[in-house]
Amino acid sequence: MPKKNLGAFFFLDNKNFKITIPLTTFICLILLLLIEHVGQAPDFSFNGFILHKTRVYAQLIPVMLLTSLSGYAVGSLVVLLFFSAECMISHIFPYHAFVLLLGSLIANVPVIKHWYKSLWKTLVSLVFFSLFLGNGWNFLLTILEDRNLLRGAEFFHFAVAFLSSFIVCLFCYLYYNYFPENIKNLFFASTYDYEDVNLLKTAFSKKKGRRIRDKLSNLIIAEAMILLIAGFGFANALLNQFRNVTEWQQIVFATRLVILMMIVATPVILFAFSYTNLSITYPLQLLAKAVEDSNLCNITEHTRNVPRIDIKTLNINSRDEIGVLYHVLVDMLSTTESYIKNLERSQLLETQLATAKAASKAKSDFLSNMSHEIRTPINAVLGLNEMIIRESKEDVISKYARDIENAGKSLLSIVNDILDFSKIEAGKLEIIPTNYDLSSSINNLVNMVSKRAADKNLAFNVNIDPNCPHYLYGDDVRICQCCLNILTNAVKYTNEGSVTLSITGKKADYSHVLLTVHVVDTGIGIKDKDIPKLFTAFQRIDEERNRTIEGTGLGLNIVQSLLSLMNSRLEVESSYGKGSDFYFSVLQGVIDWEPIGDFKETYRKSTENAHEYHELFTAPDARILVVDDTELNLTVVRGLLKQTQVQIDTVLSGYDALEAVKKQHYDVIFLDHRMPGMDGVETFNNMLKLPENKSKGVPVIALTANAVSGAKEMYLASGFSDYLTKPIESKKLEEMLGKYLPESLIHHVEIPELEEIKSLDENGEIDEEPGLVDTGIFNSLTGISIDDALKYTGGAEVLEQTLREFYKSIDIKADAIEEFAALKDWHNYTILVHALKSSARLIGAEKLSEDAKYLEKCGDDENEAEINEKTPALLELYRSYKKHLAPLCAEVEDDSGKKEMPLNQYSEAISNIKECIEAFDFDTADQIIAMMKDYRIPAEKKEHFTRLQEAISSVDRDKILKIVLQ
Length: 966
Prior knowledge:
Elements: H1 3-11, H2 15-37, E1 44-46, E2 49-51, H3 56-70, H4 72-90, H5 97-106, H6 109-113, H7 119-144, H8 151-178, H9 181-184, H10 195-206, H11 212-239, H12 247-293, H13 321-391, H14 395-426, E3 434-437, H15 438-455, E4 459-464, E5 469-474, H16 476-492, E6 498-509, E7 512-521, H17 555-565, E8 571-575, E9 579-595, H18 599-608, E10 617-618, E11 623-627, H19 631-640, E12 647-651, H20 654-663, E13 668-672, H21 680-689, E14 700-704, H22 711-718, E15 722-725, H23 730-740, E16 747-748, H24 786-793, H25 796-823, H26 826-842, H27 846-861, H28 864-884, H29 886-889, H30 903-918, H31 922-932, H32 942-953, H33 957-964
Parallel strand pairs: 4-6, 11-12, 11-13, 13-14, 14-15
Antiparallel strand pairs: 1-2, 3-5, 5-9, 6-7, 7-9, 8-9, 10-16
Helix pairs in contact: 2-3, 2-4, 3-4, 3-5, 3-8, 4-5, 4-12, 5-7, 7-8, 11-12, 12-13, 13-14, 13-19, 14-15, 15-16, 16-17, 20-21, 25-26, 25-28, 25-32, 26-27, 27-28, 30-31, 30-33, 32-33
């Protein structure tokens, strides 16, 4: 709201009003006195009665105009001044001042009601003024002069009053409709047209408890009425003491007394009323409105358009309690606003932090997706190159092919660096230990680095401790990745001399060896001050000197992160201009203490026999289907399986795959996961529901470039038979086919037997009977066939993970099946019971699998009666596996030593989780769950917390929101 409006309406601090009100008041008073005394026109007579004081109608014109422009308080005040002046000048009571008082009171009504903006309402005002002032004054004269009421006199007074009223109404009509705004803004009456002021007045009138103005007004009016009544009564009582006073004379006397008292009392009452409004009522109303407006929560549809008041702009400087209250409120609200701003600033920082985290996640997702897309063409290159190596009989071409293989693997390592960096930032990089052959790993390193060193005329020396054990247990992929990064850097930053790889082994205990790797070069060296910068992501040292050397600055950062996951770290010793020594030590389990021996001789033999490939089997009568959206990948698969004589059909999309299975029976189907349109999982589900599918029940193997931990379990849980990563390796592809093709179709080929390799148990100790699977951890389980489960999952470790995943999803998936059945959503119901059929079979729960299989068929047929009858029994059996699998899967945690979480803190944590899930921030929700695990959950909330954990673990957003609202 404009400040001038508030000031004009509430405090009369408008400079224009401070000039026009006194000026117009003075002019009006002078006009009244001039009309009263100048000219002394004779009174009119009518039927023998004197019609005196008709000049009052001329005096009404300035009084009513003054009231119309400056308000009734000013109009009534000028009447009081005129009355006082006449009493002193003429020494008589000017009773006609009462008519002027009535004129000042009623003249303001059309202004407030905005009647002058309408012509017909202006005419109504004209008639009203004429009757009220003309005929009303004549009636009072009849009483005051003790005479009869004359009809002709009534008409005369109406006519004269009509003339005065016409002049006033004409002026006001022209003023409010045609005068320019700058002229109208000079007078107080312009405040009645201020939209903001009218909105405020309406808001005040509708607010409950905003009646202080009415209370003060009623009090003033009541006091005035009491005085008038008392005066009237006293006058009558005194007149009764005089003799010969008639009753009519008493009425005339009382009427005169009342008129005189009203002439004096009314302006005083109006002045008191205006003064209390200006000094008490309006300031308090404004303070209340300003404090209310400081609370943004009070904005509603009804108050949205009402002007809001800033308390600091009121400038209430009265030297009383209201002024003190105003300054205290200003200080208090200033302090509150300062606190709110600080709070908003803190929230802004939190928002910016969340945005930064989201940006970091987006970057990691981009890097992950990009590396996936790059792996696809690398797969094609390496696959086609593998066919050249197999089929070429020329040594030169074979050598070129080996070089391509080494370069491709090097490129693949760069892509893996990018993928690993994104995983490290997301905290998802894992160390996955397996049995491995140390000499084979070193072979791969030498193959990838020797060509680069030779291209720069560098000597590449390999010194391997012959006493190092041959077969180890650890993450050989990550160790080789660390070594390759260091070796690649050594070659890049060495222009002459040599690069030396040295590996030694020191026995740590009877089943562990401490491997120490040194990479020494004669390159440019590193300044001492630059060594700490080596491990910063995207940071390259001595940039000006090394600007021509390619690199991302990620390698050593990834190496340090990987080594930290293996409880090690990379150390550096360097002399600037002379060379560097990078080294680390890592503890590895030992499968067999047989020494590696002379590595150089082993490497020479391996390179001589590298081109010798032999298929594992032939299957000319077998037919498989390969689905991939990249033609090159299909070419690679055909080439890799060429020697096996398997019949191969290929299609480029999920839609084509559905058409293919309708026309032909296949023994095995390879299905790429990531395809446009219908992806692999969706295609697989559609195959299962396809009535014309001639390959129902055959193994379906997922193909993917996402080589991440947990992928196999995810595909098995989805119903796939197995999972194969890209780039596809020939040996793994043939082994996969050998596992899933019908035995009757396979013709085995004689190949040399490999020496049996021992394995480590879960504690890293040597397993004396590697051929046997330790099923002891499953002995306490009921309701499943361990032998069948091991057969379907391929081993105890995978079975254990599969059982845990199955256990965690029981409640959520059972509830979902129940919900879809209730909603009669047969499509989603069938998908879920199909998945249950496959996953139950995987864990050896044959009864559950068969029941789900039957209901899957019912879902396909939309047999509602059977579904309604059999689903409760299926769900009861399904949920019973919470008890069957509890000995292995239930997490029993002793939380007796933990501090119990208060219920209010638990509720606050649940509220925070709700906000995170609504914003799709599952990572933060996981962090809150981890924080809550540091406390002992209240007994009445444990079941709720367990269900919430399971829902968050399965990333089921709808289920999570449903749980947190309970």
